[in-house]
Write a structure and sequence with these properties.
heterodimer; A: elongated; B: 68% helix
């Protein structure tokens, strides 16, 4: 006897989707997506307006001044101790990373439609610019050119600058979540706290301040601020590892 | 030597599309373009036409609304979309029974024009009514599995993801369903 599963497959093979059915469903989805896009844009503007640089700068400044004081005090203690304590310590998060994170919150919105069609040389230049403009945790860099290589098209296809920006920001944010988890697990509260500041600032980055990612980035900022390590780890494992 | 080739940064995987749709909701339409026909075809094989149209559209609306729950570790969204389809189809068991009954009646009471075109086409096969009756005798959960493999043409691994069970369980359940189908079909032929 014929395999009934195979026979069923043959029997159902000629079911087609009428074009009007496709169109009707497509229109319903487009309506939902465009409504959310409109909402997201409105939310994005409000969120940015509410988050003026002064407030963030003052918050970062407020964090940097004590951090600098702690660093000076630590250096003083080391000097007094004659450099006797030579335990290896993690490289501290540089203040420049915090400044870069803050600066990104003032970057304009990413275009909703892909823009910036580039040839390969220009794309590589863009990658270098992106890598230089994004904050990364100590010892961690992103190789965005590998992302582009993965997506190299055999024919004349298009590279979109706006999508590269979005991808690069998302990946940088992921690297901070991962770093925060690692530093917390390593009982390195200073660096974990600085990572927390970057993650808080990231809620205002163009790729993370609108749409559903806005909710996720806010949730992660809250999770790091309140020490919910499991939630951050889950986010990294579920939605960040695939980004690399 | 020609111009340097351009580089593409277009979504390659469904996960890319879903992730990008988080910041650009309208990108989700790309996922619709990729999978709507397969989802609709599956629904149309299991439900009455009008219900299938509604359910297939609802699958994508629901997927869109919940895309931030999508596990971006999965490159293909097919299992996710079919899991949503199954959930919605489970709310229309009555329509599914009517659909199977329509198929099953075709050899006894041919009713051209009464049921939908798809039923008539499938019913043109002499086997279809017997298969419909055999399918109707399966447990709904087994019918779901058979549908995923035979109608949606998912791999065993994808079906396992949809149902949230190990692949070995899919194999054993499918083997049992196959035996039951054979048994019911043999009874039909006696």
């Amino acid at each position: 006897m014929t395999d009934p599963i195979e026979r069923l497959r043959e029997l159902g093979a000629d079911v087609t989707t009428p074009p009007e059915t496709y169109r009707a469903a497509h229109e319903r989805l487009l309506q939902a997506t465009s409504e959310e896009a409109a909402r997201a844009q409105g939310i994005g503007r409000r969120r940015r307006a509410a988050r003026r640089p002064r407030r963030r700068s003052s918050r970062l400044l407020g964090a940097l001044v004590p951090a600098a004081a702690v660093a000076i005090a630590a250096a003083f203690i080391v000097l007094l101790a004659g450099g006797g304590d030579r335990r290896p310590t993690a490289e501290p998060v540089p203040a420049a990373a915090l400044r870069m994170a803050d600066k990104l919150t003032r970057a304009p919105d990413l275009p909703r439609r892909p823009t910036g069609r580039l040839d390969q040389d220009s794309a590589q230049a863009l990658v270098r610019r992106l890598e230089a403009s994004l904050p990364y945790p100590p010892g961690r860099r992103d190789d965005l050119s590998s992302v582009l290589d993965q997506r190299r098209a055999p024919q004349s296809r298009t590279f979109y600058a706006s999508e590269a920006e979005s991808t690069a920001q998302y990946r940088a944010w992921c690297s901070w979540l991962s770093y925060w988890s690692d530093r917390r697990a390593a009982s390195d509260p200073d660096n974990a706290q600085r990572a927390e500041q970057v993650i808080a600032a990231a809620t205002g980055w163009p790729a993370l301040r609108t749409g559903s990612l806005a909710r996720t980035s806010e949730r992660m900022a809250h999770a790091t601020a309140t020490g919910q390590a499991a939630e951050v780890r889950q986010q990294v494992q579920t939605n960040c590892l695939s980004a690399f | 030597m020609g111009p340097a080739p351009l580089i593409v940064l277009e979504p390659h995987t469904d996960a890319d599309i879903v992730r990008r749709s988080l910041t650009d909701p309208e990108r989700f339409a790309d996922l619709f373009a990729r999978h709507y026909r397969a989802v609709h075809r599956y629904c149309a094989r299991r439900l009455e036409a009008s219900v299938a149209d509604e359910v297939a559209a609802e699958v994508f609306l629901r997927a869109f609304a919940r895309r931030d729950e999508y596990d971006l570790g999965y490159a293909s969204a097919r299992p996710w979309l079919f899991a949503i389809s199954l959930d919605l189809i489970s709310r229309h068991r009555r329509s599914e029974r009517r659909r199977l009954a329509a198929y099953a009646r075709l050899d006894r009471h041919p009713q051209p024009g009464v049921d939908e075109e798809a039923v008539a086409r499938a019913g043109a096969s002499a086997d279809m009514p017997a298969y419909a009756r055999a399918l109707a005798k399966l447990r709904p959960a087994d019918r779901d599995l058979v549908g995923l493999i035979a109608l949606a043409e998912l791999s065993y691994e994808e079906a396992a993801e949809v149902l949230g069970v190990p692949v070995g369980t899919v194999r054993s359940r499918l083997s049992r369903a196959r035996q039951q189908l054979r048994h019911h079909l043999e009874q039909e032929r006696r």
